[in-house]
Prior knowledge:
Blueprint: E1 9-11, E2 27-30, H1 42-52, E3 55-61, E4 75-81, E5 83-88, E6 94-99, E7 103-106, E8 112-117, E9 122-128, H2 140-149, H3 167-171
Antiparallel strand pairs: 1-2, 2-7, 3-9, 4-7, 4-9, 5-6, 5-8
Amino acid sequence: MPAKPVEPVTFMFTDDGSVPNNPRLPFLVYRGAIDLAGTPDPEDAIEDAFRTNGWGEMWRNGIYHYVHFHSMIHEGMGIARGRARVRFGGSKGEELDLGKGDVAVLPAGTGHQCLWASPDLVVIGTYPRGGRYDLCRGSKAEHARAVETIPGVPLPGSDPVFGKDGPLTRLWR
Length: 173
């Protein structure tokens, strides 16, 4: 279940020549956004929060150990179990530690790469309605195409944790 509304930490990343990042929307990290204390199935709790708030397509896994980004869709990641150190934003980005209950929201184009993960790491990934999934690794052709497609990715109608009145809807407008 979502904790009381949390103001996210925001980051703006610049284009590093391989990873375009997003020139107008901030990357968001909600620390302890989903209260998983006493929850027997934290994966279900995070999926329920995302689904309730209009973010539908989901996956359960870790985070790839290579730099990648999505140029045609935004992405949310909730940590259900374990911890991870992730570089967001490509070579000019930030290394962040994420733990149970944290949620990261990546605007289209935001690079991400797992640098370290505890053996029990389980991440719930989600995408808003609108947009189309793709996986880009930063080739010159992918970068050039992404710079063109990122501005046209539709904004989500809600925050994946706090719904229509959540911080994302204010920060991404």
